């Protein structure tokens, strides 16, 4: 009888999934790009060189890829809880992935800028990251004849300026988009692309667990901000999250919802890098946050959903199906002189 009920449950799940419009879960074919910085091969290649060039830092040892590396889901090459930058200085937050950042309306954990152009130069100037003021960096790059020529090809007549520097790096970052995962094949109609457990996990994700309230759409993020109850009591400094951007009560302690794409590659998890495993991250969110009381402005979406350990594990197995092959990229070993 139990086996028969389980079979009926699976059949119902399959029927529901097959009739559902899955288009919202698939990445759009077009990558958003501003009218004044349309993607071209020259701009993308220039941006890639800049992204991996350690000369963009004050120490000549740190590049954008130091904290956002292709071999680590576009996060830290070493799984550090907090970003480590100039002179070994530790940043206040976990390095977010840049995967699918082109589709996001806000950049950084606190969403303090909207465009990839604004994001691109932020880490360069941050004293705990690359520690390179643009007033110093732009003349430094202009002294490299190879870069001057490449900027002229990419941005004819505009010169090598802080604006074109930002545009070039942003152009490369816009090409960092998720590859086809087992879930994508499933969403396109291949019902064998995910396992029975993963399919059941997807139904829980959308249903009882209500994960999709925050992790919705192809990028598995609502693009909004939430306080998920990782810390109780008064918050200070960067822990205040979006509240530092503007002192609004609703923004106290909130951080941007991260994408779940390639989630198996981008641990540790959360803005503070305090969680090593998907299992633990899922448990915290499913049970209403790390702290149930004493959390100021905790999101209404973060509630105990009454899931069993077996149900949480099914959700974890589903999220594993969101990881696709690594993006094929030739990491530069030679740079303009």
Topology:
Blueprint: H1 2-19, H2 41-52, H3 64-67, H4 116-125, H5 134-142, H6 145-154, H7 162-173, H8 182-187, H9 196-206, E1 225-226, E2 255-256, H10 278-286, H11 309-320
Antiparallel strand pairs: 1-2
Helix pairs in contact: 1-9, 2-6, 2-7, 4-7, 9-11, 10-11
Architecture overview:
The protein has 2 domains: 12-25 and 180-320, Cytochrome c-like domain (Cytochrome Bc1 Complex, Chain D, domain 2), CATH 1.10.760; 41-173, Cytochrome c-like domain (Cytochrome Bc1 Complex, Chain D, domain 2, Orthogonal Bundle). It has a two-stranded antiparallel ribbon with strand order 1-2. The chain is built from 11 helices and 2 strands, in the order αααααααααββαα. It has helices at residues 2-19, 41-52, 64-67, 116-125, 134-142, 145-154, 162-173, 182-187, 196-206, 278-286, 309-320, and strands at residues 225-226, 255-256. The chain has 337 residues and is mainly α. Helices cover 34% and strands 1% of the residues.
**Structural category:** mainly alpha
Order of helices and strands: HHHHHHHHHEEHH
Total E-strand runs: 2
End-to-end Cα distance: 73 Å
Arithmetic mean pLDDT: 93
CATH class of the largest domain: Mainly Alpha
Strand content: under 5%
Query: What is the level-2 CATH architecture name of the largest domain?
Result: Orthogonal Bundle
Number of domains: 2
The residue ranges in which pLDDT falls below 50 over 5 or more consecutive positions are 2-7
- Widest β-sheet, arrangement of strands: 1-2
> Could you state the CATH homologous superfamily of the largest domain?
Cytochrome c-like domain
The CATH topology annotation of the largest domain reads as Cytochrome Bc1 Complex, Chain D, domain 2
The Rg value, from CA coordinates, equals 21 Å
**Could you give a short account of the major beta sheet?**
2 strands, antiparallel
Number of helices: 11
| Overall shape | globular
What's the helical proportion of residues?
A: 25-40%
């Amino acid at each position: 009888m139990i086996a028969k009920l389980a079979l009926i449950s699976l059949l119902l799940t399959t029927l529901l999934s097959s009739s559902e419009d899955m288009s919202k879960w698939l990445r759009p074919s077009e990558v958003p790009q501003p009218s004044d910085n349309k993607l071209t091969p020259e701009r993308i290649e220039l941006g890639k060189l800049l992204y991996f060039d350690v000369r963009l830092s004050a120490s000549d040892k740190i590049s954008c890829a130091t904290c956002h590396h292709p071999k680590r889901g576009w996060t830290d090459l070493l799984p550090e809880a907090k970003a480590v930058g100039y002179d070994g200085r530790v940043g206040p937050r976990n390095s977010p992935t840049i995967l699918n950042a082109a589709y996001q309306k806000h950049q950084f954990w606190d969403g303090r800028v909207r465009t990839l152009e604004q994001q691109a130069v932020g880490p360069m100037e941050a004293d705990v990251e690359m520690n390179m003021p643009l007033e110093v960096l732009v003349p430094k790059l202009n002294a490299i004849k190879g870069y001057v020529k490449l900027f002229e090809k990419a941005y004819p007549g505009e010169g090598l300026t802080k604006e074109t520097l930002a545009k070039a790096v942003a152009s490369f970052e816009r090409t960092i988009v998720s590859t086809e995962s087992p879930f994508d094949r499933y969403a396109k109609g291949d019902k064998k692309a995910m396992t029975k457990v993963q399919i059941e996990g997807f139904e829980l994700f959308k249903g009882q667990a209500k994960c999709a309230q925050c992790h919705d759409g192809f990028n598995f993020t609502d693009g909004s901000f939430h306080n998920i109850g990782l810390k109780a009591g008064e918050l200070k400094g960067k822990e205040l999250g979006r509240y530092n951007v503007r002192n609004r009560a609703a923004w106290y302690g909130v951080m941007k919802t991260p994408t779940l794409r390639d989630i198996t590659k981008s641990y540790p998890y959360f803005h503070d890098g305090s969680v090593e495993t998907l299992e633990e991250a899922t448990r915290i969110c499913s049970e209403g946050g790390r702290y149930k009381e004493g959390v100021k402005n905790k999101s209404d979406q973060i509630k105990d959903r009454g899931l069993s350990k077996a149900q949480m594990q099914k959700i974890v197995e589903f999220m594993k199906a969101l990881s696709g092959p690594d993006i094929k990229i030739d990491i530069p070993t030679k740079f303009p002189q």
